[in-house]
């Protein structure tokens, strides 16, 4: 795949085709109103894919998430029933393993139970968190992923393979990809070649010309080995935990929540705002800190950390601890640098 966004779109298209195969030839006129389900924590490509595929963004039904950003299976059941009552046909649930901001892992076993009862395709967007499966220590976060119909996985994220390196994994064994996407262009995909034509995968995808991106993953896996990649994942978790614990020791750092993954979300509270949480304008003033510090660190050339608002929360920093070259000394530098850059705020 050319990225996780395209993998997510493929999953939606495959689920639609499996349920309504006539849509390949007849298009949208062959379809009733459809509904797919995800949370507000999902990657934006889910809605973008719904628009691109002609389903419309209104077909994306938002399921409630808990305070940590995880899908609530009971509300998934409720949203499915509501969609049916409104005349829509549910066909897919998109769960997330490693959300973009909070790094949340949806409860896949419970979601898979709902999908099994309702006859829905379960897609797991594990573009960010899928590599956790390589860790014996942390793979429990993805318990239930083996029940998914499709999984998006980006080795170029947590494993730091070279861009692009993305995969779409399917449970299907009936050549669904080719049936859904194939055009049988005889000038490219001749069936009377001297070798096994099953090796010609080009007709299974939307793209025609492609790079051999899988070679990057193969080479990295060959060089690092399974244990080497596991160490890489475990090191990222360990550094994220180290950073969170160090923040607790310093005045002026406030975690948004305890990190479950390698997303460390926090506020830097400058000296002028410490001890003033009860002030009416505290949240408004705190939300202005991250943009100022981002500008200072970029102009200083010392580091670069992303920030964003989230729901009712004002701007906070989101540090992703994924680079395998990072050390505890780098984490200490980050904290010291934030203190230095924000000492006059």
TrEMBL record:
InterPro entries: PyrdxlP-dep_de-COase, PyrdxlP-dep_Trfase, PyrdxlP-dep_Trfase_major, PyrdxlP-dep_Trfase_small, Pyridoxal-P_BS. PROSITE patterns: DDC_GAD_HDC_YDC (PS00392). GO terms for molecular function: pyridoxal phosphate binding; sulfinoalanine decarboxylase activity. The keyword Ion transport does not apply. One of its GO terms (biological process) is taurine biosynthetic process. The modification N6-(pyridoxal phosphate)lysine is found at residue 157. Homodimer. This is Cysteine sulfinic acid decarboxylase.
């Amino acid at each position: 795949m050319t990225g996780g966004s395209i993998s997510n779109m493929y999953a939606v298209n495959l689920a639609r085709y499996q349920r309504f195969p006539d849509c390949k030839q007849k298009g949208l006129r062959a379809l009733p109103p459809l509904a797919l389900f995800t949370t507000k924590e999902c990657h934006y490509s889910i809605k973008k894919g719904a628009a691109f595929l002609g389903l419309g963004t209104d077909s994306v039904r938002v399921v409630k998430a808990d305070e940590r950003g995880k899908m609530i299976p009971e509300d998934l059941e409720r949203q499915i029933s509501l969609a049916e009552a409104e005349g829509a046909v549910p066909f897919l649930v998109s769960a997330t393993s490693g959300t973009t901001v909070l790094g949340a892992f949806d409860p896949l076993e419970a979601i898979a139970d709902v999908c099994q009862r309702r006859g829905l395709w379960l897609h797991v967007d594990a573009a960010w968190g899928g590599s956790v499966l390589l860790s014996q220590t942390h793979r429990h976060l993805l318990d239930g992923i083996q029940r998914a119909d499709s999984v998006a996985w980006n080795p170029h994220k947590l494993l730091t393979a070279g861009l692009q390196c993305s995969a779409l994994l399917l449970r299907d064994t009936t050549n669904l990809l080719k049936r859904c996407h194939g055009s049988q262009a005889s000038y490219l995909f001749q069936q009377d070649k001297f070798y096994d034509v099953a090796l010609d995968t080009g007709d299974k995808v939307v793209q025609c010309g492609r790079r051999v991106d899988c070679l990057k993953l193969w080479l990295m896996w060959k060089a690092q080995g399974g244990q080497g990649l596991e160490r890489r994942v475990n090191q990222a978790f360990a550094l994220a935990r180290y950073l969170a614990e160090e923040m607790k020791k310093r005045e002026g750092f406030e975690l948004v929540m305890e990190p479950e993954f390698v997303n460390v979300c926090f506020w830097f509270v400058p000296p002028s705002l410490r001890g003033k949480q009860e002030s009416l304008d505290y949240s408004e003033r705190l939300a202005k800190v991250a943009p100022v510090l981002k500008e200072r660190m970029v102009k200083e050339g010392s580091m670069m950390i992303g920030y964003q608002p989230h729901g009712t929360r004002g701007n906070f920093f989101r540090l992703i601890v994924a680079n395998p070259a990072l050390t505890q000394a780098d984490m200490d530098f980050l904290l010291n640098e934030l203190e230095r850059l924000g000492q006059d705020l």
